Sequence to fold (363 residues):
Amino acid sequence: MRPQAPIDEIGVEAFTVPTDRPEADGTLDWDHTTLVVVTAQAGGRQGIGYGYADLATAQLVAGLLAGRLRGLDAVDINRAWITMTDAVRNLGRPGIAAMAIAAVDAALWDLKGKLLDRSVADLLGRAHDGTPAYGSGGFTSYSDDTLVEQLAGWAQDGLPAVKMKVGRDAAQDVRRVALVRSAIGPATGLYVDANGAYDRKLALAQAGRFAEQRVGWFEEPVSSDDLEGLRLLRDRAPPGMMIAAGEYGYTPIYFRRMLQAGAVDVLQADATRCGITGFLAAAALAEAFTVPLSAHTAPTLHAQVGCACRPLKNIEYFHDHARIETMLFDGAITPVAGMLTPDRSRPGLGIELKRADAERFRR
Fold:
């Protein structure tokens, strides 16, 4: 019989990593990414989790959540989840609070795997051994040469699809999409992401133009809060073009509303926002609505939970996060033959922080 393993300590650190060049999408510019790393100790083992958030997320973990979790059985992740969500009731669940919970949740899943000597994928029960990955970057701030080099490079590496950002200039978007299609060839899937930058009429017009380059995925053509607009695009988009959204979902209620509205062909979820525990709920909802699920960013984290999700279609191999994970985590998962496949011999999430390499980015 397994002995209880009360949580001894929850720790948190933050690291701000500059991008390798200026980046932008349809609505935002940035030059750095903040990595929040949470550790959870119990039974003589230490779990590690992480998310891409703001320093305020780390402060919330240290100041509110850590004290509530001490003494709870580390294996009872649902109890910890309820404890954390109750603790943030008066703060507002979405946003910073949800991302703080998500980072702790990841650390607890990693800890549980280490206590039981199983990978998270095996703990959850595998539906797949691995998941297809698609390369994601192609920022609107990139020169044509950089855009082509990055996306064509992923295609040459065997990724089945690549995604680029659009939304700053409608005419330039069409030109750049055509440029990428020419560079990657006809066999690689081409996705675009407007990050909600277009209004409904422009999004419809752009969908028709993108279809000429066999774009098969149009992400957030309008704001993800505009469920009626997403449904309009889904109904009127050219045949073969999927409408995708959901990356800003923090709770199961958000995903349920999006699915009930018939707003998407593919539901997206991000475990750094909704937690691994919440990602499993999103997968159950997607399956109930017979809609495929796609994991947004954080490829190493999603490679583990993704193996257990029956409706999972693919994982976003996002340039910024893939770069950070490879730089700062031993055990970061990279695509092989277009697939992200966790190492079953590594318990938990299968990662450890490279502290010496991370130190220069510490906040």
